[in-house]
């Protein structure tokens, strides 16, 4: 099969969230199963120069977008055996950052239309275009509006994956015609609450709709989770499937990771303690093996459950515990955690930033990894923490519910709490602390966690089966 994966970001080129990890790891896993899989993404100015210098120019063409005709250049670069296409337009993409601009509706309308135009100019004719989130959700809409009658597009199937339904690409209704250049009949497709909604249009027009965990697929039909789109999701439930994300076990491997202090493995975990000592020393924490280190690597936004952490923080710090946080986001959370670091010197470290190197040090060093999310479509951090032997404490929602089972059951790899309540979270932390004091018990917990297989091997197979179902339907 031939699959074109359309994404607004992908590792190792540029990343703002989990979508980039999926774009990098899933496509490699699909290719490793002997299917032709390529990626297409914008050529942002923030992509490091050492990648740009090695990119090869392929072609250029003009993209009709409403009343405009916009230039698009195509460059290519192969990473991990997967060919990546980069779509170039200085006006749209030569700026600092990926999202949050006044003209994002136009930028990603252009990108979605250019993805389809590109197919006529390259030597790769996909059977499936796999689109992701609102930034590429117009691809299925444009395909059916303008390209379906052309022979080389006639049998292309589309998949849309919702990574986080909170972000929908919702704009003033004038965007439908003036910016996106959609025909009159498509107005109903993208119309939602008297606005233009890119994600809603993709949900309506794609051939298969997926999201990043089975539980999140169910949650999206609930108004509490769906940010207004629950009725639309319910109406399309026949084409909805939840496929759990994975992580790249080669990239995230404590046995070979060069960014951590001491390498270790599930078979030989003893060296993990040297990472803990190194983290404590580098962050100004008391160097004590007995202190249970609680780690968080997160965006500082409300749905990550930070209000629970704020409410229970002083109680947590009454334990013989240390707290390490890496992340940035809303100023109210940044200020709270900075102040907490001042109030608890030697016990609390807060880094308001993002650093992949520090993140890996936290995963490989902390004893407990805290994810008290209000909602979590899948979550990758708990999967990485398992891989590195940090025991997750999570709220049972979305992918956290699908991946973390409480040690109180028949099979455990972490600690769960159910309700969105600070004291339920605190109880899970207390249970983790009690087990941490039993050295032999904790050693077994770490071995069980590191033995979990949440690589892309399983998940990629589910996507391949979905692609096969779609392509066989047209034969």
Descriptive overview:
This protein has 475 residues and is of the alpha/beta class. Helices cover 38% and strands 20% of the residues. The strands form 3 sheets. Strands 3-4-5-2-1-6-7-11-12 form a 9-stranded mixed beta sheet, with helices on both faces. A 6-stranded parallel beta sheet has the order 15-14-13-16-17-18, with helices on both faces. It has a 3-stranded antiparallel beta sheet with strand order 8-10-9. Helix 1 crosses helix 20, helix 4 (104-118) crosses helix 5 and helix 5 packs across helix 8. The chain is globular, with a radius of gyration of 23 Å.
Question: Helices, strands, pairings?
Answer:
Layout: E1 2-6, H1 18-32, E2 36-42, H2 49-52, E3 56-65, E4 68-79, E5 82-88, H3 90-93, H4 104-118, E6 128-132, H5 138-147, E7 157-162, E8 170-172, H6 175-179, H7 187-190, E9 191-192, E10 195-197, H8 198-205, E11 208-211, H9 214-219, H10 223-226, H11 230-235, E12 240-242, H12 272-282, E13 292-297, H13 306-316, E14 321-327, H14 331-343, E15 348-352, H15 356-363, E16 368-371, H16 381-387, E17 391-395, H17 398-403, E18 415-417, H18 422-436, H19 439-450, H20 456-472
Parallel strand pairs: 1-2, 1-6, 2-5, 6-7, 7-11, 11-12, 13-14, 13-16, 14-15, 16-17, 17-18
Antiparallel strand pairs: 3-4, 4-5, 8-10, 9-10
Helix pairs in contact: 1-20, 4-5, 5-8, 13-18
């Amino acid at each position: 099969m031939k699959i074109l994966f359309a994404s607004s970001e992908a590792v190792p080129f540029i990343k703002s969230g989990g979508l980039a990890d999926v774009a990098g790891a899933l496509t490699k896993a699909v290719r490793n199963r002997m299917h032709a899989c390529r990626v297409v993404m914008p050529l942002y100015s923030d992509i490091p120069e050492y990648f740009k210098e090695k990119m090869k120019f392929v072609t250029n063409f003009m993209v009709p977008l409403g009343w405009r005709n916009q230039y698009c250049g195509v460059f290519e670069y192969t990473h991990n055996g997967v060919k990546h296409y980069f779509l170039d337009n200085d006006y749209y993409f030569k700026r600092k950052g990926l999202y949050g601009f006044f003209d994002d509706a136009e930028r990603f309308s252009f990108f979605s239309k250019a993805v389809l135009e590109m197919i006529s100019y390259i030597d790769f004719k996909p059977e499936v275009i796999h689109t992701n989130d609102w930034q590429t959700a117009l691809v299925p809409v444009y395909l059916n509006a303008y390209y379906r009658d052309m022979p080389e597009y006639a049998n292309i199937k589309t998949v849309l994956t919702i990574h986080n339904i909170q972000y929908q690409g919702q704009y003033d209704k004038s965007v439908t015609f003036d910016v996106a250049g959609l025909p009159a009949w498509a107005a109903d497709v993208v119309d939602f609450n008297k606005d233009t909604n890119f994600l809603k249009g993709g949900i309506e027009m794609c051939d298969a709709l997926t999201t990043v965990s089975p539980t999140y697929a169910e949650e999206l039909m609930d108004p509490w989770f769906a940010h207004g789109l629950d009725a639309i999701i319910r109406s399309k439930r026949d084409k909805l499937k939840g496929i759990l994300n994975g992580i790249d076990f080669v990239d995230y491997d404590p046995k070979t990771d060069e960014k951590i202090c001491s390498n270790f493995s599930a078979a030989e975990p003893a060296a993990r303690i040297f990472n803990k000592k190194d983290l404590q020393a580098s962050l100004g924490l008391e160097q004590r093996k007995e202190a249970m280190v609680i780690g968080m690597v997160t965006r500082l936004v409300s749905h990550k459950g930070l209000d629970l952490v704020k409410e229970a923080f002083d109680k947590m710090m009454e334990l013989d515990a240390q707290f390490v946080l890496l992340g940035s986001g809303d100023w109210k959370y940044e200020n709270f955690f900075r102040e907490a670091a001042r109030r608890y010197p030697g016990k609390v470290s807060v880094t308001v930033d993002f650093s992949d190197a520090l993140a890996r040090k936290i995963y490989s060093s902390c004893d407990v990894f805290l994810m008290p999310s209000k909602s979590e479509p899948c979550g990758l951090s708990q999967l990485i923490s398992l891989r590195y032997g940090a025991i997750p404490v999570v709220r049972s929602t979305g992918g956290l519910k699908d991946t973390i089972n409480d040690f109180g059951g028949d099979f455990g790899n972490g600690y769960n709490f159910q309700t969105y309540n600070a004291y339920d979270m605190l109880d899970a932390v207390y249970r983790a602390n009690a087990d941490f004091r039993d050295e032999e018990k904790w050693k077994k917990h770490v071995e069980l966690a590191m033995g979990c297989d949440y690589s892309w091997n399983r998940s990629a197979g589910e996507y391949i089966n979905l692609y096969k179902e779609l392509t066989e339907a047209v034969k």
